[in-house]
């Protein structure tokens, strides 16, 4: 499975930006998620829509500002980021895997990764 992330860019603090991830195969039975990483730090969970219930899960740092959505017909996962902060700046990765709910927060639970898209937020 190949994942193609897009939509990153340079924005100012307070602006909005949307990311999209397209999978090359059907993703209905998989978990798709967004992670982000800054140089020298671990890759952190951002958001996902869990496959079984369709419920979104978010990192505490983005709750109320980011919205994740999934289109199983198009095999896509999107992330709408509002009220961006300088600390949101990172390379954002989409991920795909067969995992259980308790493991969705861990990069090791995902088998497939996109190439990453850079989000830069100026203050």
Which helices and strands appear, and what pairs or packs with what?
Elements: E1 3-6, E2 9-12, E3 17-23, E4 31-37, E5 44-49, E6 56-58, E7 66-71, E8 76-81, E9 90-97, E10 112-113, E11 117-122
Parallel strand pairs: 2-11
Antiparallel strand pairs: 1-3, 3-8, 4-5, 4-9, 5-6, 7-8, 9-10, 9-11
Give a brief outline of the structure:
The protein is an all-beta fold. It has no helices and eleven strands.
Structure keywords:
123 residues; mainly beta; 11 strands
**What's the helix-strand series?**
EEEEEEEEEEE
Ranges where pLDDT stays below 50 over 5 or more residues in a row are: none
The count of helical stretches stands at: 0
User: What is the residue-mean pLDDT, rounded to a whole number?
Assistant: 95
Question: Considering DSSP H and I runs of 4 or more, what fraction of the residues is helical?
Answer: under 10%
Give the C-alpha Rg. Answer: 13 Å
